[in-house]
Amino acid sequence: MKKRILVNGAGGFIGGHLVKRLKSEGFWVRGVDIKEHEYCPTHADEFVLGDLRDQNLARAVVQDIDEVYQLAADMGGAGYIFTGEHDACVMHNSATINLNCLEYGRMAGVKKFFYSSSACAYPEYNQLDADNPKCSEDSAYPAAPDSEYGWEKLFSERLYLAYMRNYGVQVRIARFHNIFGPEGTWCGGREKAPAAICRKVIECPDGGGIEIWGDGKQTRSFLYIDECLEGVRRLVESDFTGPVNIGSEEMVTINRLAEMAIEISGKRLSIRHIDGPLGVRGRNSDNRLIREKLGWGPSKSLYAGLAKTYAWIETQVNAADREPVLA
I want to staple 298 with a disulfide (CB 3.0 to 4.6 A). Which of 17, 226, 227, 315 is the partner? Predict the structure, then answer.
């Protein structure tokens, strides 16, 4: 009999790709989200359009489910998370979803929960040096995330671990580091840096310039979506609870990320630096633990993944430009 899996957040970027991955492995999948996927039809056997903050819905979707992948959250890029304008919604919405997911899931007999946490849970004080950030899993405490989004992620990690101790459910926790790729948000304010930069380069005429927030010397690492899913599946099938980083160790400055996108475009563009929300000064995935526990680490280069993402966003921009304007 096929294992029955619930993917919360199936209408999102990672969730949509995860549904496809799970279906390719032969599982029966129910997806649920407050919105349908913006860029591709769902591959789920059953897709429930609804709000996981609603207790009745949360209770209904976990019935007859063996495993839950909990990716649903109120989130976005730096322009959404670091302005402070959405803090209450981010914390309330995401915490409510996790509380509902766990309580009604364990009541329904769900045996295993995967929770997608974030590198935003790491202390700001360990990420002040752009060249030497510290993001090992054991460095999360003493806690001091740089955003309320990070604080909620840290709280929910503890929530899942408490349910594991008190109710005997299995839990797997991953801290994602900047996952990117095709079929993700690329405009509107919630897009992440790779998508935003690709869009700016695509829309900019040859010889022009694109804008980057800050001095561009802040560092990050970016993991291509296929590698993220491989890490998630290996974690869920292992006997390791986590939390564990799932991210790339190929750290680059935002300036270098922009240069890569410009190189891919073949254009000659300049970079202008402007004020904007930034987050921590430096962040990079520390993959020592995942190599130790799972014998695995990502291998795809940032440039290769960015080229694929650029090509997909270019089709989206071109399609948007061709849409007729209704009078």
Answer: 227
Question: For residue 69, what are the β-bridge partners?
Answer: 7, 114
pTM above 0.90, yes or no: yes
Parallel, antiparallel or unpaired: strands 4-8 and 46-49: unpaired
How many CA atoms does the CB half-sphere of 232 hold within 13 Å? 28
> Following DSSP, what letter does each residue of 70-83 receive, concatenated?
E---S--SHHHHSS
CA distances to 122, 196, 259 from 225, rounded to whole Å, are 22, 16, 21
**Residue 141 designated active-site:** no
CATH 3.30.360.10 fits 193-220+250-284+301-320, yes or no: no
Residues of the chain where predicted confidence (pLDDT) is lower than 50: 325, 327
Please name the residue that has the structure tokens 């987050």: 279
Q: What ranges do the domains of the chain cover?
A: 4-180+223-246, 193-220+250-284+301-320
Contact 1, 63 (CB under 8 A): no
Q: Under CATH, what is the fold of the domain 4-180+223-246? A: Rossmann fold (3.40.50)
Mean pLDDT of the chain: 94
Q: How far apart are CA 57 and CA 50, in angstroms?
A: 7
Burial of residue 96, with CB atoms counted within 10 A of its CB: 0-12 exposed, 13-18 middle, 19 or more buried: middle
Catalytic residue among 80, 122, 149, 163: 149
Start-to-end CA span in the chain (Å): 54
Same fold, 4-180+223-246 and 193-220+250-284+301-320: no
**What pLDDT is recorded for position 307?**
98
